[in-house]
Design a protein that fits this description.
Layout (H helix, E strand, L loop, with lengths): L8 H59 L4 H26 L4 H24 L9 H6 L5 H13 L5 E3 L4 H6 L20 E5 L5 H13 L3 E5 L5 E5 L5
Antiparallel strand pairs: 1-2, 2-4, 3-4
């Protein structure tokens, strides 16, 4: 009888190596599937963190004004202080994560809060000529309610091509447009001393962008309505408390 034997040791090693290679391939594929999700999640988180200060500033101010009835400037002041604290918390956390000293953290935090306050002051007093239909509208900008000015400035920051076509009106303006004057129009100066409405250009702009602006202002607590009247435009207004 033959004493011939077959040694399977080498084959076993090849099988084990093949199993390990298959596992590594599965791990690479799993990481490849996970990477898009990680990137998407990171983008969404960063976007939310970037938008949150504007939401707190504008939506918070509108809520305090309309629901608490504490007045235009007190509502805005409260929202500004809350937003400044949030920006300061961002700066403090980031500098701490990077291992900055306590002195550096204080400096960066105060600088970030100062930039936020400077932006609010800028938004309240200035609007570029390319973002208004005429010099008359630019001159009327200071008569618009401060919360509406802040919101319009935020829109222009996101969409620099936005154009305000109208703000304050008089009865004569309605007659010139061939429309009967409406006493309830928020384009008139209200008891707050401010105009509570403005119009944005919609012609020559993608419809999805017009809809996004309309929904965005609605989400921030404003009344937004597409008007066709004398010309197609987006009417935005801040309703009075109560």
């Amino acid at each position: 009888m033959s004493d011939l034997r077959i040694d399977y040791g080498d084959l076993t090693g090849l099988v084990d190596e093949g199993v390990r290679q298959s596992e590594r391939t599965k791990e690479r594929r799993a990481r490849a599937r996970t990477l898009p999700w990680i990137l998407t999640r990171t983008f969404v988180a960063l976007f939310a963190l970037a938008v949150l200060p504007f939401v707190l500033l504008i939506r918070g101010g509108v809520f305090a004004y309309r629901e608490w009835g504490i007045g235009s400037w007190p509502a805005l002041t409260l929202a500004v202080l809350a937003t400044a604290l949030l920006i300061g918390a961002y700066a403090w956390y980031l500098t701490r994560r990077f291992g900055a000293s306590r002195g550096v953290r204080k400096l960066v935090t105060r600088t970030a809060m100062g930039i936020g306050l400077a932006y609010v002051a800028y938004a309240l007093v200035f609007i570029a000529s390319e973002n208004v239909k005429s010099h008359e509208v630019q001159a009327e900008y200071s008569s618009v309610h401060p919360l509406l000015r802040i919101a319009a400035s935020a829109l222009i920051l996101i969409d620099p091509a936005s154009v305000i076509t109208d703000a304050g009106r008089t009865e004569e303006d309605y007659f010139l447009m061939g429309l009967p004057p409406t006493e309830a129009s928020l384009h008139f100066e209200q008891e707050t001393g401010y105009v509570h409405a403005l119009d944005l250009r919609t012609n020559g702009r993608p419809e999805w962008r017009n809809k996004a602006v309309e929904l965005g202002f609605w989400a921030l607590g404003f009344h937004s309505l597409r008007h066709v009247g004398t010309a197609d435009h987006l009417h935005l207004s801040l309703r009075l408390p109560g």
